[in-house]
Amino acid sequence: MADWVLEETAVVDVLEADRPHRTGAYVILDDGVTVVDPGAARGIPRLVEGIRALGADPGDIRRVVVTHVHLDHAGGVGTLVRDLPRATVFCHPRAAAHLADPGRLLEGARAVYGERLERLFGAVLPVPAWQIRAVEDLGRVAAGRHALRLFDSPGHARHHATVLDERTGGLFTGDAVGIRYDPGFTGWPKAYGLPTTSPSAFDPPAMLATLDRLERLGAVAVLHTHFGASPPAEAFAFTRRGVEAMLRLLDRFGDRALTERDVRRAWEDWVREDLEAQGLGDVDLDPLGEDLRLDALGLYGYWRRRREAAGSPAAGPGS
Length: 319
Ligand SMILES: [Zn+2]
Fold this sequence. Notes:
single chain, alpha/beta, Metallo-beta-lactamase, Chain A, 7-stranded mixed beta sheet, 37% helix, 21% strand, binds zinc ion
């Protein structure tokens, strides 16, 4: 349940919604314990066990670094630090208010997940404001000999930071550099990668610019929250390929008024073609079902916002 990935750096499978190799929390053991993206509240007991299994004391968690506030990454921060008054939570400046007061975030999540929200992620406790430190673009957090540098990384969300460990060259990408679908999650013969959107704020051109910027950092490994490590060239390539395909797909529709269903169908068709091209033509798409739904929702949301910004009369309020 906990595996070393780089020097003093391990990943703990937090078994999101009981699914193995779906979501991992990263742990750095130097000058106490640092956690990057602890995951949902429901997985916090797993994280704590994992830290113990690594021979460390969960009571010695001194820092929690959050890539962004979505519940599968940071829903459990409040639960984790409830008994750790000396721990500091570091995040993107736009994320700080959501951690202190998760009300609006929960509303948004409920709109996406409905009644399943609690069951999937557990309760979301606020983080005491005095434990939160907003870190600007290029800011550093020291964790013993590890220097964690935060990069503003819009695209998936406007409050997303990506974290480079300057000691190991590990890049904690949250949802900025796609999802690596691990065989332990899909049951497929090899890993597969796609970008991941968010329903309300996905911005494909911003994501492409973020990918260019992060790739230039020369990381030695991309450490995905979902799930495991990728060689950087691979992770950047599959994420870029998917985002470019999404944009082409919208172009192909031209000026037509779209429905969410149109977008979902076209996206699934592309994913099937891509799987075929990657030598995974025979696999069952089911493990990706929920993600493909959310990806299509994100892409559809982007299309609508873009259309509204262009002042199209067909896209008035309520459309
Ligand atoms: Zn995520």
